[in-house]
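Re: the request from the purification team.
They wanted to know what the chain is likely to look like in 3D before they choose a buffer screen. I agreed to run a prediction and write the result into the notebook, where they can find it.
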Amino acid sequence: MTFELVCFYFFATVAGIAALSVISVKNPVVAALCLVLTFFSMACVWLLAQAEFLAVALVLVYVGAVMVLFLFVVMMLDVDFTAVREGFVRFLPVGVLVAVVMLAEMLMMIGVRTLQTPATADPALLAGMSNMEWLGHTLFRDFLLPFEIASLILTVGLIAAVTLTLRKRTGTKIQKPSQQVRVRREDRIRLVKMAAVKKGEVAP
């Protein structure tokens, strides 16, 4: 048994225990921290598989951004999770049945694809590069146009989501740049000429 295999068993065991803890513990903060440990352990597994980009993306995107944000939201909001967990035991057999069926279907599809697809060598190793170097070289040289189109589609989707969810609320003050640039000084300022009087005198 090699050292890499021992590390794989260790990371896989930690990831499995942490994943079970996510759905079994009652404290949502502890569940979020267990999910962070699950992501980090799976990133270590990706590193063992020489998929550095996936490992770094998993740590930066999920552990460093999504889960930290989720953890702060859970800690700041006073959410009653008792009502959320009331039907967990009652619907547990149905959930287990659906999960087993989905797992069997995925394993069957993986087996079919494995039989149909011949094993190929790692293109990064053939090119004499690391996984991240080969991925960046291929992405920004061979697939630059699809990458730019995908980024444009994501930007349009983000703007569309903000536009669709934007609602006008009564009683709130908003800025209207079109009206602000057309404003004149005479509309905002009124100069009043008053006679100067000494201190203690009454103006006529």
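For the purification team: The CA atoms of residues 113 and 119 lie 11 Å apart.
Please add any questions underneath this entry.
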